[in-house]
Amino acid sequence: MKLINMGIAGMILLVTTSCADSTLTKGSQGAIGGAAGGAVLGQAIGRNTEATLIGAAVGTMLGYIVGNEMDKFDKRQLNYAYERGPSGQPVSWVNPDSGNSYQVVPQPAYTGGSNRVCRQAEIMATIDGRPETTYSTACRNDQGQWVLQN
After folding, report:
1. What residues have CB less than 8 Å from 88, skipping those under 6 apart?
2. What is the pTM of this model?
3. 3-state percent breakdown (helix, strand, coil) of the chain, nearest 5
4. pLDDT of 44
């Protein structure tokens, strides 16, 4: 069964990455990468097909939001929320160029895999008037910067 589930994750990864070419938008590329990473992470955590599919779905949404809708300003604000946002308290902003609004509720830091400091957060975004909510995890890299995990 484990081999079958890893095969499913591998197929999702193969199909999504084979579609990545220069004609795709940043959002599509982000969604593809998020789906692949989410599927692999879902499989690693849940070790079943359902977890793999849930991981792919969540990764697709987060990848699309980050890849397409968040510009440099938003990414700096998100980094600020991970770096300085009080646990359980919302950090909000409106992008002055796009008009998109975001509210991030970071959770307490913890030590994740490879002894990296990580933090989970709920991200509520209103993009083109449509509210979307997703959950993300960011971990510090070797340079101390927060990096979203797929």
Report:
1. 105, 106, 107
2. 0.55
3. 50, 25, 25
4. 62
Tokens of 43: 């499989």
Give the amino acid at 32: I
Over the chain (150 residues), the average pLDDT of each successive run of 10 is 41 40 44 56 64 69 62 89 96 93 96 89 92 92 86
* Structure-block tokens of residue 48: 């079943």
The DSSP letter of residue 135 is E
In order of 1, 67, 71, the CA distances from 26 in angstroms are: 35, 5, 11
How far, in Å, CA of 6 to CA of 101, rounded? 37
Domain boundaries, the chain: 2-68, 71-149
Query: Exposed, middle or buried by CB within 10 Å (0-12, 13-18, 19+), for 22?
Result: exposed
Is the Cβ–Cβ distance between 146 and 79 less than 8 Å? yes
Whole-angstrom distance between the N-terminal and C-terminal Cα of the chain?
A: 24
Q: Which two tokens stand for residue 10?
A: 């591998």
Q: Which of 91, 100, 104 is nearest to 130 (CA)?
A: 100
